[in-house]
């Protein structure tokens, strides 16, 4: 159906139809098709939305005739697409994930679509309110809502999730996967988990199974390293060496240049880095709440996750978190016993064992 078409092909089609020389046979069917294609917003970045609306407005200007007025099906479909984008942009602003100028651009296009309207639609009104709320305390306060690393990880997750894999039947390409893994290598576990949490808020239930599996595997591995360091099984790596200080050449010193050239050691991008998470009571509470709400079953169902949180609960004397950890560990232990019992019965009867635990993402 239209919701499963390749996004790149649709964008190319819009660019082609926005040319004056390209005919459009049936505007009603075309805009109804666009309405279905863009119903899944998890594949669209803010700049994609602006580009799409710009092309659609140009197509309307060039291809609409007098019969396509405000009562036509084509016009209603166009308004529906723009309203859905406005609502999505407002959600991005609420979460601190988009620059306010993107909202300005979309609001300007909305005014071009309905120049004679006395009041904005409900979605456009929400976008106006979200923009005012985002800038109420100034640009600096808005940009502090989400860290730079979290925002970068969110955008990369969105790009990975939008990669066409025929709904999971075709694996991601090796180059794309290796670049994504290289990013995750140097991100802290709490940064990745917060990015996933924001993605789930922006696009509920849209994270694909391949991306979930990769992210869940990396987070559990990083938490396992944290547990080994906290329990003394593994020592943290030594701090990086101080940069080599090289004096300025005499000819530069004679010309009045002060200071030294600092030559840094090369950055090793081939080995994963241990990135410790430094918590305060408030940030630990935030992290534990995100873990409880995460869509990554591999993370929330891993004993490593709760062992790490148990160590942190002991460190911060948090009885509330310790109680949650105890409950979760008991659930995991009970589930493991039930799975082991099912495997024993399967071997005894020759039945195929259940692989429910291994299939978790």
What does this structure look like?
The protein has 361 residues and is mostly helical. 62% of the residues lie in helices and 2% in strands. The protein has 16 helices and two strands. The chain has helices at 7-17, 27-37, 46-63, 73-95, 100-113, 122-134, 139-143, 148-162, 174-185, 189-202, 209-230, 250-254, 281-293, 297-300, 303-315, 319-349; strands at residues 244-246, 261-263. A two-stranded antiparallel sheet has the order 1-2. Helix 3 packs parallel to helix 5. The longest helix is centred in the last third of the chain and has 31 residues, at 319-349.
SSE map:
Blueprint: H1 7-17, H2 27-37, H3 46-63, H4 73-95, H5 100-113, H6 122-134, H7 139-143, H8 148-162, H9 174-185, H10 189-202, H11 209-230, E1 244-246, H12 250-254, E2 261-263, H13 281-293, H14 297-300, H15 303-315, H16 319-349
Antiparallel strand pairs: 1-2
Helix pairs in contact: 1-3, 2-4, 3-4, 3-5, 4-5, 4-6, 5-6, 8-9, 8-10, 10-11, 10-13, 11-15, 15-16
Mind telling me the C-alpha Rg?
26 Å
Work out the strand percent.
Answer: under 5%
Helicity, in percent?
Answer: 55-70%
Tell me how many strands there are. Answer: 2
> Helix-strand pattern, N to C?
HHHHHHHHHHHEHEHHHH
Structural class: mainly alpha
Query: What is the CA–CA distance across the termini?
Result: 27 Å
Oligomeric state of the chains in view: single chain
How would you describe the shape? Answer: globular
- Biggest pleated-sheet summary: 2 strands, antiparallel
Mean pLDDT: 82
Q: Residue ranges: pLDDT <50 for 5 or more in a row?
A: 261-271, 355-359
Provide the spatial order of strands within the biggest beta sheet. Answer: 1-2
Distinct helical segment count: 16
């Amino acid at each position: 159906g239209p919701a499963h078409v390749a996004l790149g092909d649709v964008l190319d089609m819009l660019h082609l139809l926005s040319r004056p020389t390209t005919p459009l046979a049936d505007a009603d069917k075309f805009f109804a098709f666009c309405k279905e294609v863009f119903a899944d917003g998890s594949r669209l970045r803010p700049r994609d939305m602006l580009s799409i609306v710009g092309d659609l407005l140009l197509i309307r200007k060039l291809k609409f005739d007098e019969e396509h007025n405000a009562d036509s099906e084509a016009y209603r479909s166009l308004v529906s697409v723009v309203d859905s984008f406005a609502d999505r942009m407002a959600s991005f602003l609420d979460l601190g994930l988009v620059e306010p100028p993107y909202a300005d651009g979309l609001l300007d296009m909305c005014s071009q679509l309905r120049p004679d309207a006395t009041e904005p639609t409900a979605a456009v009104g929400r976008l106006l309110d979200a923009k005012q709320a985002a800038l109420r305390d100034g640009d600096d306060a808005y940009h502090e809502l989400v860290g730079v690393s979290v925002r970068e990880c969110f955008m990369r997750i969105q790009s990975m999730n939008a990669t066409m894999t025929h709904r999971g039947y075709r694996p991601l390409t090796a180059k794309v996967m290796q670049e994504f893994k290289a990013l995750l290598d140097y991100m802290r576990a709490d940064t990745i988990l917060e990015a996933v949490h924001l993605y789930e808020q922006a696009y509920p239930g849209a994270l694909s199974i391949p991306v979930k599996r990769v992210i869940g595997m990396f987070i559990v591995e990083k938490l396992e390293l944290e547990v080994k360091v906290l329990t003394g099984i593994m020592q943290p790596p030594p701090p990086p060496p101080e940069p080599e200080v090289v004096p300025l050449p005499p000819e530069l010193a004679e010309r009045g240049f002060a200071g030294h050239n600092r030559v840094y050691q090369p950055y090793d991008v081939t080995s994963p880095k241990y990135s410790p998470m430094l918590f305060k009571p408030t940030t630990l509470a935030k992290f534990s709440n995100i873990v409880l709400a995460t869509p990554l079953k591999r993370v929330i169902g891993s004993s490593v996750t709760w062992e790490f949180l148990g160590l942190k609960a002991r460190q911060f004397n948090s009885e509330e978190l310790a109680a949650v950890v105890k409950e979760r560990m008991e659930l995991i232990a009970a589930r493991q016993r039930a799975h082991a019992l099912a495997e024993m019965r399967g071997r005894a009867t020759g039945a195929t064992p259940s692989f429910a635990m291994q299939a978790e993402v």
